[in-house]
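Input sequence (400 aa), recorded before submission:
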Amino acid sequence: MANVPRYKTQDHPFDRPWFAQTFSLLSFSWMLPMLKIGRSRQLVQDDMFPLPKSERAHKCIDDLEARWTEVKARGGSFLWAAITCYPVDYGWITLLYVGDAALRVIQAYLVGQIVKLIQDNESTERGLYLAASMTAANLMHFVFHHMGFYLSSRLSFLLRLASIGLIHRKALGMSMQGQAHITTGHIVNLASTDVERFMNSITFLPYLIISPIQLAVVLYLLWGLVGPFAFCGAAVFISFLPLHVYSSYHFGLIRMATALLTDDRVRTINEVITGMRVVKFQAWETPFVRSIQKYRSQESRKVLSANLIRTYNLAFFFAATTVVSYLTFLPYYLEGERLDAFTAFYVIALFAAARFTVALKIPLATHGLSELRVACTRIERMLRLEERHETAAAAAASLP
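Predicted structure, token format:
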């Protein structure tokens, strides 16, 4: 047991030069020593890697505060400050997502070529090359997809952490005038519920740019195969884009209404806890319970409305490939064109590649952006409240 390695004084792999451990980072093999310890005994805190220097709480909070101060001086919003706080990290995440989307199209192309080879009874040697290419594309897709989502989840967590710290600093530094415009329940709701929007939103934002580009590439490939009939199926994807934007607008309204109801419920609960002695003396338990239940039932209805919108989007995602393929093949066949195995499999594979980003990621991105905009607007209102040093400076300036 004495020879078991301990990581208490070691650096985190993220603090080391990335080019010296590229494979370790991409394959997550840097976690193997810790997993080996966990196989022999229960892990303790000293077995864990220390936090990377870039992920220390004070570092994240200072970075976001500096960015917010800079953006606020130019009249910008907290949403823009949060999104642009880590531009390099977001650039790498976007590149990984672009590679993920490109590999999905490449996989669809290889599927079509393999089916064409089987249909035409071509040489076995070319089939081996295609099979090897498909295997390599799948492996690369796993790396790009999982690494992109890992880094984006990590970035979302850092922004969530920094926002909580910024709210805490603001709460400690607010003046009496600022405290008059906000309640304890509202601060608790901001630091517990609103900051969670970073976890559900940041991950999918790059797809707002990537998805239309991927759909254009898929249409270009389909045009060379089935001609203008490609637009018959793709029209379903294109027609749903404005609908996603419209539903995201209502999603934002629902989120704002839900947040206000949550503020009222948390404020009421805090009042009950603070004045519990008076509540018990006056036997006010039942009226307060009814008030809290009323807020909770209204809040639950808003959450149900938001989940119904998510359900419609998921239903479209699961039915998209079948619908768009049918709307493409039907006029293609009625016009007397030959529908062989190569055409059918290739078209379905290309639409399946576009379905993942257009029918799934765009709704998640638009709805997530609406929720994030509402959350950042609420946080920004608190961050713009007057602080004690500003009150002191204004009082000093007013002296003769």
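Checked by second reader. The mean pLDDT is 83.
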